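Cont'd.
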Amino acid sequence: MEVCIKVNGRMITEQIEPDLLLIDFLRRHGCFSVKRGCETANCGLCTVLMDEIPVLSCSVLAARADGHKVETLEGLQKEAEDFIGFIAAQGADQCGFCNPGFVMNTIALLRENLEPTDDEIRAYLAGNLCRCSGYEGQLRGIRNYLNSREKKGDIDGTQEI
Amino acid sequence: MEHRKYNAINRSVPKKDARQLLLGKPVYVDDITGNALVVKLLRSPHANAMILEINSSAARKVPGVVDIYTWEDVPQQRFAIAGQTYPEPSPYDRLILDRHVRFAGDVVAIVAAEDEKAALKAMKLIKVKYEVLDAILDFHESKDSKILVHPEKDWFPPVDVGGDAGRNLVASETGGDGDIDAVMADCEEVLDHAYHMKSFNQAMMETFRTYTGFDRYGRLHVISSTQIVFHVRRILSRALGIPKSRIRVEKPRIGGGFGAKQTAVCEVYPAFVTLKTGRPAKLIFTRKESQIAGSPRHEMEVRVRLGAGKDGHIRGLDLYTLSNTGAYGEHGPTTVGLSGHKSIPLYTGGLEAFRFGFDVVYTNTMAAGAYRGYGATQGIFALESAVNELAEKLGIDPTVIREKNMLREGMKMPAYYGETANACALDRCMARCRELFHWDEKYPVREMGDGKVRAAGVAMAMQGSCISNVDVGSATVKLADDGTFNLIIGAADMGTGCDTILAQMVAECMDCSVDDVAVFGADTDASPYDSGSYASSTTYITGKAVELACAQLKTKLCAIAAGMLGCSPEEMCFEDGRVRRINTDQSVSLAEISVKEQVANDIAAVATASHSSPVSPPPYMVGMVEIELDRYTGVVKILDYVAVVDCGIAINPALARIQTEGGIVQGIGHTLFENITYDRTGRPIESGFMQYKIPTRLDMGHLRVEFENSYEPTGPFGAKSIGEIVINTPAPAIAHAIYRATGVWHRELPITPEKILMSMSEKDAEL
């Protein structure tokens, strides 16, 4: 079947198998940030934005994305740059394999909620598993980013990495 | 304790790969390897069976299928896939494919196909006839059972560790110090309980995966997500029957390991396909495969006999550990040792005698392997629980009973290979943790109304900093073109940040910025030999090698500079990133030396050093937890976890802290919900993250971590280790808090709400 999917601003028209998953479609088109951590929609690693809404690309058929706009971390580098330094300052990137899904969902969170509380951050990101960091460092990083945005000054997040 | 001002170490610099990782760049095995044959493994549905017949003729006809291999196609030389220094203590008990399959998930056939669809279709068409045999699923029944997991004649232990395949024994030993029976007989209080820690998975986010192909010289080129490039090379050489010199193994970034990737779980299969077909091949484990055929923690039951006086003086410890290595013996003989050697020494204080014995047995379950903590986790759960039970029985505050008995700096540890605790801040960790946690306020049980109760628990922990007299760490440091440096290592950064902390050490030694050190690793062709990243050894062992290599490099830079200034090398000194002629103003910069290095020069500005250590100085830690337990549902909520760690000097405090936090959360997972179980035929139940629940950010409460420095004279800049110890306190501390809340000791993990509720109703029935 033929699908037309706008990936990171570029329209892709392609013949695909009907059972092709969005994650595999995206990786086939060079979006290697999209990671598979489970096969059961439990880990959040494959999070991408479809029409601005975070979805698990392992649980979406590529055919379902036909006519829609999909964004991966490859397309949101600038927006990610805003806060990843704060995560890095905590060392909370660790092995990095969950980072793209976590960063994508954090982008979605921060677009939706400009001033989330710690509990709102935890709740929004609850589906993004991380086995290395113990989560607390990710929270500190996001909190420091929000504080720096508030103060316009900055503590330790702008260190170059 | 040393208070030095450092330029690059003891600083929280971001990881060198942070930007690449956080921006989702292609840095992992599957991102950087191109087209390759898809390798899939057909697995046994039976826990113990002989393969009578395999018919793959229909499967071979599937378009895109390239080849299918069965036990008749593979070399008949047994090997071990444990990543350990040769000769490995783990028995050689595997073939690439065996006619005898020993657990549900054991590999029956290898399918190589042009694409995944073809491979999956072919798998369904392979017809296998099995003779299903009785299986041993309960490790208590394994020793001397009539059912043998490894009846084969060519079972071979490279090292005698007391194993006997005819008895299902992988290893067996008893040792001790002092007259334990006499001491026990003389004790006013003797506790005797068994503590059972189940097997659970590392569940690193990136599953096992390996790419193989032939390089431009016709050598086997392996790109794998591994902690142990050099061991993988040796393992492949033996398994495939080709010389090590024909194999090159490298690792890109690794999506987590936690010890799982200290075993060559998946490398042999694609390598075999590449050898057979001459084509690149790639095997990516599904999450299900990682769950049911990975390399999880050894299930252990540790029986603790603890002898003490009424005053809480712990006089004798007698431990016996029964360990379940599963269907194959990887890391079986070694993990078990830590259950005693890295728990008993915590109570060196007034200990008069100890004994530690163990048996490691085969069963028809998934083979266990290395998992952060490596046996110490199991032993510490047992011993720390026993000490908490003693404290509660005697009515002594459990922090006070520990202060009375704990190991202190300067003590000789008979239960730890006779080593002396040269750097030990365990006492200060306890004092600081009490203060930070507000132990005195939180230890008393508090009723919160509506069936909720708050309570606290405590535990101590230790680990090692390497395998003494075995591990080898190496580093090559060379001057780069513009006066910066390259650091080349064989240790594997699996997310832990070792590339960064080793670069910090170079920067410290060479008076440069961390940004001026480029790190490369790990590649068997290019890296100096390193046993790999395990046993908490990278900071302590490879770190020291970095220090030594830098010292050698300075000598060479002085020699080159001497030539430039027309004097003798003895007149030169390395200072503030320059080489200066003593007592003069003459000096040359590193950039000038690097230019000179390339013109009429016969001194290579590169140095390689290797290091091993005769000792393995333990890091220490205290953990305290506050929980809220719901008496109506049995649900335990972690409110607050406080940990104070003595890892010597933290080379990078931010990374040390994240290690600690991550380890604590893993520990919370295996204490409260992670479990590997089998149905009555031996088929695994928790086959994915749907059933195997690892902690989310809603499950871990609030974590607070601090460090109490000590200074380890044999470590680089006083450092010890951090990576493993951090997983050891949650199980005993949480079990303690649950006892405080319910009056019931749980001696088997995980402690699920169901178990808590049922134990409470049993207790009520007794009353």
